[in-house]
Amino acid sequence: ILEGMEKSGINQKIHSQLLYDLGLMTYKITVNNIQNLGVHQIDKNKEVFMKARDYFQSSAEIFSELNDYNALIQACMFIGNINGFLGDDELFLEWYERALNNAKKGKIHNSIVKTLKTIIQKQSKLNLHDEKIGKIREFLSNTEELKFFDLYTIASFHQELGKSLIKKGNIAEGLSEFIK
Which of 23, 82, 88, 130 is deepest in the core (most CB within 10 A)? Predict the structure, then answer.
């Protein structure tokens, strides 16, 4: 089907959306199978996950050429999720970083927060506190961007920063983040 689309000269936007939809459908079916049959089924669904990832990667390339940031961010997050299911935390973080960078480039503030929260959550699970601290400090230092976020969101990032600082042994500095 896809080879036929490429040869027919189909519109890039339609082509990328079809690839994305194929990826999404494949992803959802696979996740439902895993939820119904149990986590131990991930290995049995690896090839299907990889096919979904291929669809998303192909669509992401086209979305990038089209500067369709919303669709590109979603594709990157799905690719990250698939890598997470497959146990590759490094690729999970890499693809979420791509999503975050595109959210920043497109100035899509809700996606900035969503991807950043996911990144720091994964960094916490992996005890990557230095990286997490750097990522949060970078976000909080951009005062021009902070005006787009509510106080609860900003406070939650200060709290996450405080937790990591305390885990690194910087107790006083960590505690001070809780009252900001």
Answer: 82
